[in-house]
């Protein structure tokens, strides 16, 4: 499988880094594009260096290179994940404003009817944000905010991050086994004693 991964400058750079780690471990061919702000956010928010992040990809592109392979629909990929997806990137995608490679690559997925998964990282949301998400959804994109679940009883920030990343990978039928899946209330180990009334 071949996927495009975009990392924008929104807070939550670890979502993009963990996505790359998971795809690398699965042997997926990854074509990576980072915004300039993403590079700064990676080094500000995580213990990773940009060079180490880029080393997990099969190919890395300059966000200013609108002539890159991933800017064309003739370059065959299974789809794209943008993690995290800033509101600026969301707005660019929602309005087909392709001034950068990241938004152009996302636009290509939509026009070719391939999967585009956006881990939109913003809260609270105003009507403009919601309208952009609606527009992307109408065009076939998948809005997947990194909203944590707690049924798998996360103990660390990594546990929370992993669950959202696996949800994104699920959209491509990829299982990196990043969290304990829900098995139904009666089959989960909920811990503690049963309360009898």
Automatic annotation (TrEMBL):
It comes from the Bacteria. Dimethylallyl phosphate binds at residues 151, 167. This is Flavin prenyltransferase UbiX. Flavin prenyltransferase that catalyzes the synthesis of the prenylated FMN cofactor (prenyl-FMN) for 4-hydroxy-3-polyprenylbenzoic acid decarboxylase UbiD. The prenyltransferase is metal-independent and links a dimethylallyl moiety from dimethylallyl monophosphate (DMAP) to the flavin N5 and C6 atoms of FMN. FMN binds at residues 9-11, 35, 86-89, 121. Belongs to the UbiX/PAD1 family. It holds the Pfam family Flavoprotein. Its EC number is 2.5.1.129. InterPro entries: Flavin_trans-like, Flavoprotein, UbiX-like. Keywords: Flavoprotein, FMN, Prenyltransferase, Transferase. The keyword Flavoprotein applies.
């Amino acid at each position: 499988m071949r996927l495009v991964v975009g990392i924008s400058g929104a807070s939550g750079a670890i979502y993009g880094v963990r996505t790359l780690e998971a795809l690398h471990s699965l042997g997926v061919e990854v074509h990576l594009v980072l915004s300039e702000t993403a590079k700064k956010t990676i080094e500000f928010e995580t213990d990773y260096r940009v060079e180490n992040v880029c080393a997990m990809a099969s190919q890395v592109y300059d966000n200013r290179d609108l002539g890159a392979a991933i800017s064309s629909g003739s370059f065959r990929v299974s789809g794209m994940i943008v993690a995290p997806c800033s509101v600026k990137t969301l707005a660019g995608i929602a309005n087909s404003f392709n001034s950068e490679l990241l938004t152009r690559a996302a636009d290509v997925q939509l026009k070719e009817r391939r999967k585009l998964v956006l881990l939109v990282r913003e809260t609270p949301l105003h009507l403009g944000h919601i309208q952009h998400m609606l527009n992307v959804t109408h065009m076939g994109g998948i809005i997947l905010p990194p909203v944590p679940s707690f049924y798998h009883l996360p103990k660390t920030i990594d546990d929370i991050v992993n669950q959202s990343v696996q949800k994104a990978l699920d959209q491509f039928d990829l299982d990196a086994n990043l969290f304990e899946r829900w098995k139904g209330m009666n089959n989960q180990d909920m811990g503690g004693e049963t309360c009898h009334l």
